[in-house]
Amino acid sequence: MRIIILWSRDNPKKVIVTLLFLCIFSITRIPLIKIDPTIQKMLSEDHPEKLFYKNTEYKFTSDVITSIYIRDKNLFLPKKISLLEKLTWKFADIKEIYRVESLFSSPNFYSDGDMLSTVPLFDPVPETQEEMNKLVNIGLNNPLFKNQFLSPDKQSMTIVLYAEKGNHDVEYYRRYAKAVDAELKPLKKEFDQIFQLGIPKLSDHVTNGMINDQITFIPFAVLVVSLLLLIGLKTLNASMLPILTGTVSVLWTMAFMTFFNIEAQILISTVPIILFIIGSTEDCHMISEYMEGLHAEKNNLKAIDYMAKKVGLAITLTTITTVIGFLSITFNKIILLREFAIVAASGLALNFIVTATLTPVYLRYFGESKPRNSTREGMTANFYKRLSKILLNLSKDHKAKVCLIVLMLSLFGIWQGTKVHTDIDNLTVLKKSDPFIKQVNLMNENYKGGINNLLVVFKSDGDKPFKKAKAMKKIFEIHNHIDDNWKDGVSQSLAGTLALINRELNGGDQSQYKIPDQDNLISQYMLFLSKDDWEAYITPDYKEMNLIIRHKVSSSVEIDKVLKRLTADFKKILTGSDITFKFTSAMVVQTVAAKTLVNSQLKGIFLILLFIFVIIWILFLDIKAALLSLIPNIMPVIGLFGFMGFFDIALDIGTSIIATIAIGVATDDTLHFFTRYNDCLKIYDDRIQAMRHTLQEEIKPVMTTSISLAIGLAILGLSNFRPIVEFGILSSVTMIFALLSDLIVTPMLLLTTNQKEFISILDVYTQKPKPSFLSQSSLLNHIKYSEAKTLFLMGLLEEISPDEGFNIIHENPENHYLITDGIVHVEKKGKQRSSDTKDTGQVNGDSEINIEFAILGPGTLISQKRIDQFTHLTIKDSVTLLLINKNLLKRISVKNKNLNLKLTSNLHSLLLKPLI
Fold first, then answer.
1. Rounded to 10 degrees, what is the CA torsion of 797, 802, 808, 814?
2. What is the mean pLDDT of residues 530-537?
3. What is the pTM of this model?
4. What φ, ψ does residue 650 adopt, rounded to 5°?
């Protein structure tokens, strides 16, 4: 990342032009984005359960239904029923509607004297109220109408609309819902209540809500996070830069979605806020280091270089871990989650590019040109100092107590986490106060059957088995079992229709509401039915039958319980027959998907932790460091599941992604902490001192970013959708857990171990001497290349600019510096007596003249002890120095005593010799 930052700093015009072009291009792609607000994208299209569901839909009927609910105290008046009859035929003309079932279109089998009437109940609509009341009572006596089309209180009725078979995109649903609403609108003044319920309407409702969420919450979240960063870092750039980088990242991500035909669904709607909030953490670290660079360099261009050196590696790694955290969600079988993971991960990767290129250009033109005292002084700085002191004391002096408390809380969290269950619910997408939910509850109060379908497919071998009485009786027994024993469901089947025909042909005798014993009667009764009446229930070869259960249950947990109970009941009923059965519907597919959440969650957590372990192992070449890094990143996950279990929050499509995201985000601060601690170990005497300075330097950006993340994500709790609300609140809580873990657990772990320092893989490739360097340096006399490499890896390299000069030598006389790169110019000045007033302007005075000049190259050891008061060191370009002091020699003695002896001997010899 450092190379990108420095290149962008030096080529601002190219960066600006490129970013502007890509942003304008991205804006032109935004209209191409499609919205899919449903949660229908559960299992992949090739999943066996999904294939069976689609095949069943193709054979029988669409699972997507819409119920038109009409309620009025004086509903059954001829005038009002006539309006509803016209409405029914208008629905039939809507091209998105495949079939209409109602009291105006579905056959009402009724014995009228010696004749069997098969016309719909209100065909024609009666002209007198007396005749109307009679027909209503006839309808309530029809078990296929009662609790489905007619409510027992005679004040409401429903019209059921079936969508076309096959897959439907969001535009289909929107056209469907809007066309239905257009027909209902003129009738709202005629009835107390009239509205539609179903997937199309829910889809359209959620689409509008998603758009409103984006308009409302993104600006609010960005404003809050920017304000928090401004307060935390006390610089306007801290609030402006995240807005710029976040906006560009969002535009690019939206363009990315259009190229890969990814629709904006309910989880993807959170991505813009995620990019603004998570992306702002890296901006915060970069600005914090930039401000530190101003104190060190006194120049904004040099400060950008300082920033690149300090955070380049850490931000690259944190971006990788965060992206991997999101990508680990792609191992989930739920398409909804996989698409979200791909978009979020891609967006964060693009945010990394935007941040690396835009930040240096922005700071070059708009960054502070001089340090501000407010970044180091004042009440805020004192607060951070006191807090870092408290945290250090906890880690140093109260390790046993802290460990015990953390262990007890972890065990409690694990115990509560075992209570977490999975649940996916179509209706819990919306809040309980949402008007749509209130309408669903109203319908459920008046009807036994709800707006959800459950399909049961029966199969049997032989010659037209379901055209025979024996098999049909079994199906009818199941039909009655559902109606008699399930209070939240009502069945529709061909068996129920045939039983009704049998009753009416026997004078309406209720005892004859059954399947006749003779096979030939089954064939005769089928003649009363048209293809439209039976095609949704039986295949032309009579080998498969479909039974529809219309019910109120929307929770995958409850549906799973229902399926288990019904499976046991059906097996008992079908004992002795060769009939098999299988449940299917969108909800069954949803339930199967819900069962994969736990395994997918565990797999995702394992993969992200494994990746963190590997990357830190590679980074620091130390397995202990890798193991240590896992502990503070596991703690937030334990806290998350403990919180969910304690408050009985289910694992669903919104909450299932939090754990892996939390680990990826929490690792950001852990990596910043590790890299800072590693640098401090090379400078200070011991681990305590290194930890003290690490806490002092990292506590401000870590707390600022974590609190900003927590509050920014908590804003999602204001959303109209429960999955987003739960995602926001739980993510916010998890960020707090991660903050506490990083500030308490991480320091304690690092101080508890005997680990002296970590060697970075970056150091291995960048901080190693050239073989020719050994022959140039007297300090490295008789030292092997492998030993010299160890010296470079354990030492601290410092780059000195011309502006800084060599004040560090005079400020730290006990330190010695080995030139590893660059040239140092030496001027040694002296004084002599002179009486030549032409040259000096003095009489019998002293004049200062240059008596010696030298150029020192790589390999030379510079030390206060090797120069006198007349020696002056200057540099024209930057010089890299390797710090040699007692701390380094002490650390080397632990790893390589032989190297320590050689260095000590060579150093002692050199210190006895002057620099020139």
1. 60
2. 88
3. 0.73
4. -75, 155
| 145 token code pair | 């109408």
Nearest CA-CA partner of 630 in 321, 352, 341, 394: 321
> Torsion over CA of 609, 280, 217 and 231, rounded to 10 degrees?
120
DSSP for 101-143, written as a single string: ESTTTSB--EEETTEEE-SBTTSS--SSHHHHHHHHHHHHT-T
Structure tokens at 111: 């014995």
Angle of helix 271-297 versus helix 199-233 axis, rounded to 10: 10
Helix (H, G, I), strand (E, B) or coil at 847: strand
pLDDT at residue number 188: 93
Give the CB-side neighbour count of residue 353, counting CA atoms within 13 A. 14
Residue-wise pLDDT tens digits, 440-483: 888 888 888 788 889 999 999 889 999 999 999 999 999 999 98
Secondary structure (DSSP) of 709-735: HHHHHHGGGGSSBHHHHHHHHHHHHHH
Distance between CA atoms of 298 and 685, rounded to whole angstroms? 28
* 534 φ, ψ (degrees, to nearest 5): -115, -15
Find out whether 779 and 907 touch, Cβ atoms under 8 Å. Answer: yes
Question: Could you tell me which residues come within 8 angstroms of residue 382 by beta carbon, excluding any fewer than 6 positions away?
Answer: none
The Cα–Cα gap between 575 and 478 comes to 12
Q: What are phi and psi of 164, to 5 degrees?
A: -65, 155
CA pair distance 272, 26, nearest whole angstrom: 14
Residues 153 and 446 sit within 8 Å (Cβ to Cβ): yes
Q: How many C-beta atoms surround the C-beta of residue 554 within 10 A?
A: 19
The answer to whether the beta carbons of residues 420 and 540 sit under 8 Å apart is no
pLDDT class for 128, splitting at 50, 70, 90?
very high
> For 144-148, 431-435, 759-763, which range has the lowest pLDDT when averaged over its residues?
759-763
Strand partners, 150: 146, 157
User: What is the amino acid identity at position 300?
Assistant: N
Quickly count: other Cβ atoms within 10 Å of residue 191's Cβ. Answer: 20
User: Can you read off the two tokens belonging to residue 813?
Assistant: 């006389």
Other C-beta atoms closer than 10 Å to the C-beta of 619 total 24
| Nearest-angstrom CA–CA distance, 790 and 771 | 13
Strand partners, 363: none
Q: What distance in Å separates the CA atoms of residue 85 and residue 196, rounded to the nearest whole number?
A: 16
Residue 485: Cβ-neighbour burial (10 angstroms; 0-12, 13-18, 19+): exposed
Could you tell me if 765 and 749 are in contact, meaning their C-beta atoms sit under 8 angstroms apart? no
Confidence of residue 832 (pLDDT cuts 50, 70, 90): very low
> What is the per-residue pLDDT for 710?
84
* CA 865 to chain centroid: 58
Q: Tell me the residue type at 476.
A: F
Beta bridge partners of 458: 545, 581
Residue 463 CB partners (closer than 8 Å, separation 6+): none
Q: How confident is the model over 294-311, as pLDDT tens digits?
A: 876 677 888 888 888 777
d(CA 911, CA 885): 13
**pLDDT, tens digit (0-9, with 9 covering 90-100), for 199-212:** 888 888 887 777 77
CA–CA distances in Å: residue 375 to residues 233, 382, 763: 7, 11, 30
DSSP state of 742: I
Both tokens of 488, joined, read: 């939240």
Q: Do residues 319 and 347 make contact, with C-beta atoms less than 8 angstroms apart? A: no
Q: Which residues have a Cβ under 8 Å from the Cβ of 158 and sit 6 or more positions away?
A: 67, 68, 69, 70, 102, 148, 149, 443, 447
Within 294-346, strands assigned E span: none
Kindly report whether the peptide bond that precedes residue 143 is cis, defined as omega within 30 degrees of 0.
no
Read out DSSP for 870-904?
A: TEEEE-SS-EEEEEE-HHHHHHHHHH-HHHHHHHH
Strands 544-551 and 580-584: unpaired
With contact defined as beta carbons under 8 Å apart, do 733 and 643 qualify?
Answer: yes
Contact 790, 892 (CB under 8 A): yes
